């Protein structure tokens, strides 16, 4: 199996499921299962906590005993079983319990695949950005296909699409994988030398992690309030909102396609500085120029606000950490940078949105500007 092709295929099918989960899961619980908005918010909020717990503790622990291939297979099987458990239930308590189970396994697939990607990049024959771009492409395709399916079959089809995609993913895991991903961890790999706690002793790692937590967290208002902002505040037709939001994904795809050729020799600190500057500029533009065309222009900066900081972290751990620590690092990143920080900043964004919609976006500079300052202060000291 060609390593590059294997990684591209796994990113592609996973992000097919991710498109269902991120874009439609809340709507499915509300429309197909009949839950109130308050009940959905409660379930998804606690699901986010379960996701953070799983990616920070359960996933890194399991990675000490299972090979990358076996761990991914295990997570897919558990995610598929827990997704099927949704079928017979419609009551809030039952759906809450099933969602907690689902959140313990399914979201951990993302750091599992990212960890495999970092391992393959360390072998020197895989371009991360090229394979990751397939994930972004499949996300767009997934959302587009599901919007058509829902139009014909209704919201009930959302769960069946998720189950179907997970079945395909399980079939893909049955195929041969790169040999390095089938290597079972040794007793030495489970020693204190490679514990999660030891990550904090690695020069530069805590600083880089804090920076990406701030930068990834700053996307909270964009992910949660962009649709409402365009629909209610800028009065954009619903048909065009999906197109506008996908502009960001298009530039994300273009970034990942070219990043290995354009930025592979850059220092991590330089990448993060560019990401922080682009992110700050994005939120200022939306606040200062509240019109559709400037919002569309700001969407081009998603390549910096999200993709650049994500690539910078992957580049840093790939260059700096041994293979045994990649799962720990990915688990921390997934839990803190893409889950908990987003949850906290979503509350801040919601408070500011009630005052003035534009403030919800400008308010995110409260973390991007400190991130820039931290980079400028620490880049020479820690040499990252």
CATH topology name of the largest domain: Growth Hormone, Chain: A
The CATH architecture classification of the largest domain is Up-down Bundle
Class derived from helix and strand content: mainly alpha
Task: Please indicate the count of domains.
Answer: 2
Note the main sheet.
none
Helix content: over 70%
Mean pLDDT: 88
Shape: globular
- Poorly predicted runs: none
Number of strand segments: 0
Distance between the termini: 34 Å
Q: Evaluate the radius of gyration.
A: 20 Å
CATH class type of the largest domain: Mainly Alpha
Keywords: Cell inner membrane, Cell membrane, Kinase, Membrane, Transferase, Transmembrane, Transmembrane helix, Transport
Main location: membrane
GO molecular function: kinase activity; lactose binding; lactose:proton symporter activity
Subcellular location: Cell inner membrane
Describe the structure.
It is a single chain. This protein is mainly α. It folds into 2 domains: 1-185, Growth Hormone, Chain: A, CATH 1.20.1250.20; 186-384, Growth Hormone, Chain: A (Up-down Bundle), CATH 1.20.1250.20. It contains 17 helices and no strands. The chain has helices at 3-31, 37-63, 68-85, 92-105, 109-122, 128-153, 157-173, 196-199, 205-217, 220-233, 238-262, 268-288, 292-299, 302-320, 323-355, 357-362, 365-382. Helix 11 runs parallel beside helix 14 and helix 12 (268-288) runs antiparallel to helix 14. The chain starts with a helix and ends with a helix. 48% of the residues are buried. The model has no long low-confidence stretch (mean pLDDT 88).
């Amino acid at each position: 199996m060609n390593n590059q092709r294997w990684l591209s295929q796994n990113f592609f099918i996973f992000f097919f499921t991710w498109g269902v989960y991120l874009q439609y899961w809340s709507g499915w619980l509300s429309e197909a299962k009949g839950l109130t908005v308050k009940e959905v918010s409660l379930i998804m909020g606690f699901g986010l906590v379960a996701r953070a717990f799983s990616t920070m503790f359960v996933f890194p622990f399991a990675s000490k005993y299972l090979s990358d291939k076996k761990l991914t297979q295990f997570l897919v099987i558990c995610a598929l079983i827990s997704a099927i458990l949704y079928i017979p239930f419609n009551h809030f308590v039952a759906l809450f319990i099933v969602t907690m189970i689902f959140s313990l396994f399914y979201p951990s697939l993302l750091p599992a695949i990212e960890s495999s990607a970092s391992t393959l990049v360390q072998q020197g024959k895989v371009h991360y950005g090229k394979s990751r771009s397939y994930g972004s492409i499949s996300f767009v395709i997934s959302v587009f296909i599901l919007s058509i399916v829902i139009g014909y079959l209704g919201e009930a089809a959302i769960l069946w699409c998720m189950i179907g995609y997970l079945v395909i993913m399980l079939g893909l895991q049955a195929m041969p994988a790169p040999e390095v991903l089938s290597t079972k961890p040794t007793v030495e790999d489970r020693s204190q030398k490679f514990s999660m706690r030891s990550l904090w002793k690695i020069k530069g790692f805590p600083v880089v992690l804090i920076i990406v937590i701030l930068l990834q967290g700053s996307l909270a208002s964009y992910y949660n309030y962009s649709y409402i902002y365009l629909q209610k505040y800028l009065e954009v037709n619903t048909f065009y909102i999906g197109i506008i939001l996908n502009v960001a994904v298009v530039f994300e795809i273009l970034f990942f396609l070219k990043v290995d050729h354009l930025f592979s020799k850059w220092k991590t600190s330089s990448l993060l500085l560019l990401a922080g500057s682009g992110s700050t500029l994005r939120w200022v533009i939306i606040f200062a120029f509240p019109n559709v065309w400037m919002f569309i222009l700001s969407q081009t900066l998603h390549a910096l606000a999200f993709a650049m900081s994500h690539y910078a972290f992957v580049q840093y751990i790939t260059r700096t950490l041994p293979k045994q620590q990649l799962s720990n690092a990915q688990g921390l990143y997934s839990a803190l940078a893409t889950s908990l920080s987003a949850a906290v900043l979503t509350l801040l964004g919601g408070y500011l949105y009630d005052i003035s919609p534009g403030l919800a976006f400008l308010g995110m500079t409260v973390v991007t500007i400190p991130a820039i300052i931290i980079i400028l202060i620490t880049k020479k000291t820690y040499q990252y």
